[in-house]
Design brief:
3 helices, binds 2-acetamido-2-deoxy-beta-D-glucopyranose, mainly beta, eight-stranded antiparallel beta sheet, Jelly Rolls
């Protein structure tokens, strides 16, 4: 009996260790491939982790092999450390078409010791200009955090770990575009010194290169599709399309209100210099 319990304990510790270190789940190659700067991308730990690098010669990027019509997409990311002004790490969904649909997380690097800002944007049919920005409440270069995008017919939600930081509701009924083209999952590391830090005033310090971002979590909860508005991808056989994912639950609503109150530093809906009256999807 004693040995049996010991064995169980041992197995439990082993499994726990494997799960928390991100060793399980599909490897990078199963769902993703390198799309930019292949000599700046390195796969480690049997493909369970990928390192993107950027130096003066190139940035780098990966993308999912397939396109999707709905899902909840994620990436565990540890951002580059040190002085990262000018450096942008992006995690996004994009249709890549001419009039593209796109959902962006853009992590804006900063001088060492300065806070990181996370910019999000929503493009529908090529129309973006929907930036929001939050100040992150932790150091995203110190450890991996989970970044997710829920996309179903009713809402798009951006999450940092499990906290909603942005919601884009489907308001096609009042003529607002809503992403409906098939999109692929992309992560890139690139130089954006002309705008990323302090509106482009602080440039990339190349003596700090190479900059490195670390990625984990290559499983994809998505409905594979190559067509716009795929009916099959709206089916409730996919759990993210079920009613409890049509809007935030009360706990999520209060967490989201807290983020907006304490961490949101820019919201296009409130930018009266830019928009005489708020765009139609914004509170009027
Ligand atoms: C760039 O980094 C180097 C090495 O840390 C530092 O000596 C230099 O002051 C930095 N340059 C700027 C413009 O911050
Ligand atoms: C989408 O098209 C690509 C390229 O033609 C193909 O490899 C992939 O299997 C297609 N995916 C789906 C879900 O049909």
């Amino acid at each position: 009996m004693g040995t049996f319990y010991l064995l169980c304990l041992f197995a439990w510790v082993l499994v726990g260790g494997i799960l928390t270190s991100g060793e399980t789940g599909p490897s990078f190659d199963q769902n993703y491939h390198v799309v930019w700067g292949s000599d700046h991308v390195r796969s480690v730990r049997q493909g369970r982790e990928v390192r993107l690098a950027m130096d003066k010669s190139s940035g780098s990027g990966i993308a999912s092999k397939l396109y999707y019509g709905s899902g909840i997409f994620h990436m565990r990311i540890k951002l580059p450390g040190g002085d990262t002004a000018g450096v942008v790490t992006a995690f996004y969904l994009t249709s890549g078409s001419n009039a593209h649909d796109e959902l962006d997380f853009e992590f804006l690097g900063n001088l060492e010791g300065q806070p990181w800002f996370l910019q999000t944007n929503v493009f529908t049919n090529g129309l973006g200009n929907r930036e929001q920005r939050i100040r992150l409440w932790y150091d995203p270069a110190a450890d991996f955090h989970l970044y997710s995008i829920l996309w179903n017919e009713h809402q798009i939600v951006f999450f940092v770990d499990k906290t909603p930081i942005r919601v884009f509701n489907n308001k096609e009924n009042i003529g607002v575009g809503y992403p409906s083209q098939a999109m692929q999952v992309v992560t890139t590391l690139w130089d954006a010194e002309d705008w990323a830090t302090d509106g482009g005033q602080i440039k990339t310090n190349w003596t700090q290169a190479p900059f490195k971002a670390y990625l984990q979590g290559f499983d994809i909860n998505g409905c594979p599709s190559n067509i716009t508005n795929s009916p099959a991808c709206h089916s409730t056989k996919y759990w993210w399309n079920r009613e409890q994912f049509w809007s935030l639950n009360p706990n999520q609503q209060s967490a989201y209100a807290d983020v907006k109150k304490n961490y949101m530093t820019y919201d296009y809906c409130l930018d009266t210099k830019r928009f005489e009256k708020p765009p139609p999807e914004c509170p009027q």
